[in-house]
Amino acid sequence: MSNAIATMPTLADTLWRAEGQARWVRNAILILAGSALMAIAAKINVPMIPVPMTMQTFAVLVIAMAYGWRLAGATLLAYLAEGAIGLPVFASGSGLLYMAGPTGGYLVGFFVAAVTVGFLAERGWDRGPVATFAANTIGTFLIFVFGLAWLTYLFSLSGDKTLGDAFGAAVANGVTPFLIGAVTKIALASIVLPLAWKTFGKLR
């Protein structure tokens, strides 16, 4: 099956058709808008138990679904580059030193999730709630995998911790407190994208 048959138009392609140079301009605008959305989402704190919930993961999922894997990947790279040079786009702090800290794995996971979920969206996984929920769950899982791996490494640097102790500490600090928020954001994104297609799909 050819790539043209295997892939489907993204929501961004449906709402804003562009060819040639106009497409490059459109993509640049969408990348800037997406990275700005990531920065705004990082600053949003929704009261949750046991910890407040930021909306970054939700923004990653929505951008990936709406943009497709190439444009979503470029958007997340732009967002990470903005943070690396010191722009205040992360939840707290900026720069390479901050990115090497406890949140570093999650930031890498954002990029991997954006590419993966964007790829699935181009195969139609963003059209119905069940498939969208599955794609968003995969993306969120990848974010946690990279975050957990990096946290485990950081905890393992403590001389009194075995690898098992480090892994347990990483799960307790970097996964368990955020599970309720993660499920909430997966569900929310799984409502938003199919609803957007139902509303704007007729423009295809």
Beta-strand residue fraction: under 5%
The H/E string reads HHHHHHHHHH
Unreliable runs, pLDDT <50, ≥5 residues?
1-5
Structural class of the helices, strands and pairings? mainly alpha
* Multimeric status of the protein: single chain
Number of helices: 10
Estimate the mean pLDDT confidence.
90
* Inertia-based shape: globular
Question: Can you walk me through this structure?
Answer:
The structure is a single chain. The protein contains ten helices and no strands. Helix 4 packs parallel to helix 7 (104-121) and helix 8 (129-156) packs antiparallel against helix 10 (179-200). It has helices spanning 3-6, 11-15, 21-43, 56-67, 69-84, 95-99, 104-121, 129-156, 163-174, 179-200. It is mainly alpha-helical. It has one domain: Orthogonal Bundle (Arp2/3 complex 21 kDa subunit ARPC3), CATH 1.10.1760.20.
Essential attributes:
globular; 204 residues; Arp2/3 complex 21 kDa subunit ARPC3; disordered N terminus
Quick recap:
With 204 residues, the protein is mainly α.
Question: What order do the helices and strands come in, and which of them pair?
Answer:
Elements: H1 3-6, H2 11-15, H3 21-43, H4 56-67, H5 69-84, H6 95-99, H7 104-121, H8 129-156, H9 163-174, H10 179-200
Helix pairs in contact: 3-4, 3-5, 4-5, 4-7, 4-10, 5-7, 7-8, 8-9, 8-10
